[in-house]
Amino acid sequence: MNLTQAFTENNSIRLGLTAEDWKEAVYLSVQPLIESGAVTEEYYHAIIESTEQHGPYYILMPGMAMPHARPEAGVQRDAFSLVTLTKPVQFSDGKDVQVLLALAATSSKIHTSVAIPQIIALFELENSIERLSNAKTPEEVLAMVEESKNSPYLEGLDLDS
């Protein structure tokens, strides 16, 4: 599973959306995956429930969150979506998020060994949050994903399968 393929196959890049609160932002990030059949509606509810129990464990850096839940909570196939918001939303821990990259992984192994390195590579790019927030087209996001492929985090990964 690679980001470019997942974004393209699931038509899951949505830019410049508006959310009233963190729950709506999470829903907007999961919606493309529900629409494409990668996850069921249950997946969204599992993320909300888990967030309410454990806090927003998926805020990975200032401005960026990676909403996800357990594979058995409605994941049909591995997929990613990326959503940007016109205005950040605040989570329960007081952190503001403007970029959400939802992850649906069919196993913990996919999550750890394939998804996380690609996400790190993308967000290690200089000014990644600002660049993604300012992106106007999915092609701009895909160009950043392409740029991130030179990252040392991706050495040895087979992203073509």
TrEMBL record:
Domain PTS EIIA type-2: 6-148
Keywords: Cytoplasm, Kinase, Phosphoprotein, Phosphotransferase system, Transferase, Transport
Pfam families the UniProt entry points to: PTS_EIIA_2
Cellular location(s): Cytoplasm
Coiled coil: none
Residues of the signal peptide: none
Main localization category: cytoplasm
Function: The phosphoenolpyruvate-dependent sugar phosphotransferase system (sugar PTS), a major carbohydrate active transport system, catalyzes the phosphorylation of incoming sugar substrates concomitantly with their translocation across the cell membrane. The enzyme II UlaABC PTS system is involved in ascorbate transport.
Protein name per its UniProtKB record: Ascorbate-specific PTS system EIIA component
Organism: Streptococcus loxodontisalivarius
Lineage: Bacteria, Bacillati, Bacillota, Bacilli, Lactobacillales
